[in-house]
Amino acid sequence: LRISAVRATAFIEAHRLAEEKLMSYLDRSLIASESTDSINSASYDLLNAAVQTVLGESRKQVEKAEEVLQDMEPRDLSSITGHYVAIILLHRLALRIEASASDGTLKEKEARLYLDRVKRNISIAHVCPICHEEREGTLSRVLSKRT
């Protein structure tokens, strides 16, 4: 469940970023080619058709990934994504602590103490028993036992 949610979310985001980069590249290429008049109408039509085909295929794949997410219990998905957001934020906090130690804002001893705490919390979030409990049923059932 957890792995499916992470994969689907990452897949959707990767396709979104790839589409943005493709469109940005094409916009820059078109602007450059218009300034040199090196692209003709037939070439542009061919390129546009190819891009639309690629984007259409990408959208179909994204729809499948979105279906995976829609099939999950909202509470499960919220818990899973919440843990991953927490892990990302904890990693960013660790980077800030290291930067503060490097620039002298924090003493090295303080930084080590904070980093140990942050790393411990990252480890806890990675092995959260709620998110990893798949033997006893869905995540929703596990959460309902705790509330």
Give an account of the 3D structure.
By secondary structure, the protein is mainly α. The chain is 85% helix and 0% strand. It contains six helices and no strands. The protein has helices spanning 2-36, 41-70, 74-102, 108-126, 129-132, 139-146. The longest helix is centred in the first third of the chain and has 35 residues, at 2-36. It is flat. The protein starts with a helix and ends with a helix. The model is unreliable at 134-143 (pLDDT under 50).
In short:
The chain has 147 residues and is mainly alpha-helical. It is built from six helices and no strands.
Average of pLDDT:
82
Helix-strand sequence: HHHHHH
* Head-to-tail CA distance between termini: 21 Å
Number of helical elements: 6
What value does the Rg take, in angstroms? 23 Å
Low-confidence stretches: 134-143
Estimate percent helicity. Answer: over 70%
Structural class: mainly alpha
Shape: flat
Number of strands: 0
